[in-house]
Every structure is written in structure tokens, then in C-alpha cells.
Fold these 3 entries.
Entry 1:
Amino acid sequence: MDNSTEEKFDFANWGLSKTWQFRFEFFAENGLPKLKPTAQYKENFKALSFGQRITLNCNFWAAFFGPFYFLFLGMWRKAIALVLFLFAIKVVSIVCGANVGIASSVYAAFSMTTANTAYYLHRVKKSKSFNIFEGLF
């Protein structure tokens, strides 16, 4: 008898694109790509092709459109948090005398790498959090 509380989802009937289905199925089977991923996640991630790894970890729409893409996906709480995060990065870069372009690049990279897990948590786990770091720890 299986006592696990994990739910099994059929993402094919969710109206998702093939790319999102791939991401959601991988996350459902292996967990999220945390800072310290599980052994199962590492093993199955290494078995993917280079293109599949990029698809799983990166979302180029989020890199280019940032909080607008999060709004498009219905994650308005995380969009607000991203705007505040961008503001904080720019303030710190101005105070430190760093190039603001570097701060924008960091922000784009952060948006690109967190969008997939944030959307998974939003759709599957019904997350209502403002925490943009949710799922990383």
C-alpha cells in the first residue's frame, strides 16, 4: 500500500504546450531544481539532452519581458516581487558604482531561471506566495 501524499497529474489535459508539459512532468517526477537538488533530480537531469536541459532550466520569454511575462502567466504576486527585486538591484548597483547594465543582466538571468519553477508552483501547487525564491530552498 502506497502511503505517499504525492498526487499524479495528467498534464496533457491541462491545456499546456508540449514544452510546459515536459517541464511540469519532470518537476512532478523529480522535484524542483533547488540549490541542493536531490540525487534523483541530478541523475535524471544528467540523462537529458542539452536542449532539454535548457528547456527545463531557462525561459527566454521571462528574460526579455520579466514581470510582464509573469503577469501574462497569472502570477501577479511574483511580478510585483520581481519589480521590487529589480528596484533593489538597481539601487545597490548605483550605490556601489557598478554598471546598471550588469544589474539588468543579473535581473534577466534571475527571471529566466525562476519562471519555470514559479509557474509550476503556481499551477500545480496553487502557490499564492510573493516569494520569488520559493522552490529554491
Note: The mean pLDDT is 86.
Entry 2:
Amino acid sequence: MLRFNSKFLLLGVFLFAHLFVGLAQEKNASLITAFQKGSSKALSSFLGKMVEIRFDNNKKDFSKNQAEIVLAKFFKNQPARSFKLQKEKKIDAKNSFLIGTYTSVNNQYSVLIKGKEQDNGRWLVNSLDFVKK
């Protein structure tokens, strides 16, 4: 009887872990799709009020509207071919980051996306770091 209960408990923990990972991936699916399409408009829905954007060693802070314009220019000059998520990591209860590879027609970039989960459960990006490979 004890074996059955421990197996049942282990199964419950396993299912809960899969549910948690699945929800985290669902939250990021739209963000990943925005990168895959090279859509600054879709990406802007994830941006916080202020966003730090860095292209190689050139780092600047932008308002959400300015960041959308900067990203539109980047996507226009570097049209999307693909975006593949490489890593996702929680820093603490609210902060996490994603690392992916953005491939354009001309170049490939490592992209570090830092964000924070809001009280309403929405995840907002506060930093984008593009490093040409």
C-alpha cells in the first residue's frame, strides 16, 4: 500500500512539473513567434515602459515607442529567417531570461532577453541584447 502511495505522489509531482514547464513555454510562445516573424509590432506588446537595447557594444535606453522603432529598423535591415530558443532560466520569483539565436538573411545573432513577471502574470521585457556571431 505504501508503494502505491509513493508512486502516486511521484506521478503527481511529475505531472505538476510538466504543467509548470508547459505554462512557461506557452507564455513565451508569442514572444518567440514575434522574433521568428521579425515583427517589432508583435514584440512591442512584451516591452516594458523603458527598455535597454544593445547591439554588440552599443547600449541605449529607450521608451517602449522608441524601442519599437529601433526594432523595426533592425528587422528591416536584418529580415528574419528563424529564431530558436536555446535556454530559459528563472533568476528569482519574478525575473528570468531567455537566450536564443536570431538568424536573419545576412547574419546570425545571439539574443539575451531579460524580463520580469508582473503581478498580473504578464511577462515584460526590460532588456534586449543582440550580439552578432
Note: Helices lie at 2-37, 40-44, 64-77.
Entry 3:
Amino acid sequence: MTLRLNAKRLMLLRLDRGLANRQLAFDSGINIAVLSRLETEGGAQVSSLTLAQFLRLCDRLGVSPGALIDDDTAPADTDSSDSAILGAVLYDLRTAVPTIVLTDVLGWTSERLHAAAEALRPLLAPVGLTVHRHDGRIALRAVDDTHTEATLAARKHPRIGKSQRLVTPPRARLVHQALNYALLSHALSDDDRRNLATLVRAGLIQEDAERRLEISDDVHLSLYPDGERRPPKPPQRAARGRKERLSKS
């Protein structure tokens, strides 16, 4: 039995992990031209890689070696382009699409559409997706709901959308203030406290040992890449103002 790599599955796994082929090739110790050939030429033999390269490739993708291997007893995929087209369309639309719409826009028969959907299933399985067909509609769905908690947390993350974007004038002002003096939340307005909470969750502002709020180490390093020390500053702006007024009186 001749062991061969499943080129389409390899490419789908790489794209799902958000890896460029150059990065995957570097991490796996494979020449970039060899990896490109493995992804574009169907039936590439595993023997074109060393055992160490193949195992590093599987480890970088987070799959077992069997997930990338086909054997010569498997039936040939005569309409592989159909499954690729259907997968790309469903991925782009990101919603359940009526089958009649797909047959119309693709110019396929209903039998050809469902055959492509069946051929797409094993290609999606390694990345946790499946083709969901219900009530005359087709969509890409997760195989199970183990991801839902992470999805919900991501949707609530302050950097997920424009409505919660970090770069707003009030938040930039707070970061600038935290650069010059430590902030105390009880001395801020309600709006500033809400913006401050968003900045703390995003890791731009952090608490020091005395529970005062100042810019995080990452922000400080981005502003002072040469490793300059933080400038000394009084604990609170209001306290400094009171001292100045007392000294003048």
C-alpha cells in the first residue's frame, strides 16, 4: 500500500490554523517549494518527506499522522473541484443558503450539489466543521458545541468590533494620563471608569503594587523600546494639585 498525503486536507488545516505556507514550511523544516507542491499536487507521496519532517508537520498542525494520509485503496474523488467550490461559497456567505439558490447560481443539478456536499464532509472533519443540511438549506457548522464558551468570550472582547474599539479619544486621554501619573478609579467620572475598565481588560492599563492604575509593561515598552525606566510620578494628580495650592497659600 502506497501512503500519500491528502493535499486538500493539508491546505484546509493550514488555512484553519491561520498559517502562511512559508511559516508552516519553516516550522516543519520543509522547503517552501516542496510544501507548495504537496498542497497543489494530488496524491503526493509521504516518501517525499523525511519521517522527522512529516512528524513535525503533523505536530505543527495539531493532528495525528493518519489525518494527513490517504491510501491507494480509497476511492478517487472524481469531482473534487465541486466540493472546493461549494466549501468556498458556504464559507464566504457564512449563513444557511437554500439549495435552490445554490443550484441556480452554480448551474448544478440537485444531485450534483448534494454529491459535492457529501464529498466536502470528510475534508471539513479535521478542522471541526461539517456540512449541515436542514429544511432545504445548507450551511457550514461546527461539529459540536465545545467552542461555544470561547466564541461567547471572543464576542464580548473589547477588541472584537468597531462598537468596542479601543482607539477612542476618551480612552487615549486615559492612557496619556496613566503615562504621567497613577490613576485612582474613585477620582474619575462614571464614563472614565467604564473606559478604564475596558483598557484594563485589554491589558493596556494595570494595577501596581499599591493598587494604583498605570500603563502596562507592554505599553511602556512600546513607548520606550530602549528600556528606559518609568519616570517618577506622584500617586494622584488631585493630591499633587492640593499640595501646590497649599504651598501657594
Note: The beta strands are 3-5, 69-71, 97-98, 129-134, 137-142, 205-207, 213-215.
